[in-house]
Amino acid sequence: MTQTLSNLTFILGGARSGKSALAEERAREFGDDVIYCASAQVLDDEMRDRVARHQQRRPHAWRTVEAPSRAAEKLEKALKEKAADCVLFDCLSILTSNLLLTLNENIGEAKAFEILCERELDSLFELIASHPETHWLLVSNEVGMGIVPAYKMGRTYRDLLGRANQAAAARAGEVIFMIAGIPMKIKDDH
């Protein structure tokens, strides 16, 4: 049986559903000392603009941890330097994409998920469990409600993120699904 992490809220939804804005609003409710863990890599102008918009919305006092990979390791270091009231991790979908792009294109979804769990998810859940005094907000995209991607890599990504989302939802004490800016609580084990 999977251990429920009562200090973890998992927020997922489609693109532009309001996930990040809700997570930022909730982070403010937990206190002033917030770590914002960013998984995005700035590889082009469009992503640079997206990151800048996210940064402008956040309070300047929040600490930022850049973690396109090895997120738990980087967050553990930040928490050792100074505890936090809340850690906002935005987002699991980009972290999953980052990992997938480091793997062989012909790798299957099951093997990719095994690697993702070993490298990222299990260590992140262990870190969350070891810091029960900190509230954690984990954001992700729901990608399983659209059309089947035309290319193998797209299908592998969709399936991999779907399994990662299931793992996060199983562990989270609270799960919120965002639709058109409206939060729908779908799990509350607090």
Helix and strand topology:
Blueprint: E1 5-13, H1 19-30, E2 34-38, H2 45-57, E3 63-66, H3 71-81, E4 86-90, H4 92-100, H5 109-130, E5 135-141, H6 152-171, E6 172-179, E7 182-188
Parallel strand pairs: 1-5, 1-6, 2-3, 2-4, 4-5
Antiparallel strand pairs: 6-7
Helix pairs in contact: 3-5, 4-6, 5-6
Give me some keywords for this one.
190 residues; alpha/beta; Rossmann fold; 46% helix
Give an account of the 3D structure.
The protein is an alpha/beta fold and 190 residues long. The protein has one domain (5-188): P-loop containing nucleotide triphosphate hydrolases (Rossmann fold). Helices cover 46% and strands 24% of the residues. Strands 3-2-4-5-1-6-7 form a seven-stranded mixed β-sheet, sandwiched between helices. It is globular and about 45 Å long. The two termini are 17 Å apart.
Q: What is this structure, in a nutshell?
A:
This protein is an alpha/beta fold and 190 residues long. Helices cover 46% and strands 24% of the residues. It has one domain: Rossmann fold, CATH 3.40.50.
Name of the level-1 CATH class: Alpha Beta
What is the CATH architecture assignment?
A: 3-Layer(aba) Sandwich
The total domain count is 1
Structural class: alpha/beta
- The CATH topology is given as Rossmann fold
Portion in beta strands: 15-25%
The CATH homologous superfamily:
P-loop containing nucleotide triphosphate hydrolases
The shape, in one word, is globular
Major pleated sheet: 7 strands, mixed
Poorly predicted regions are: none
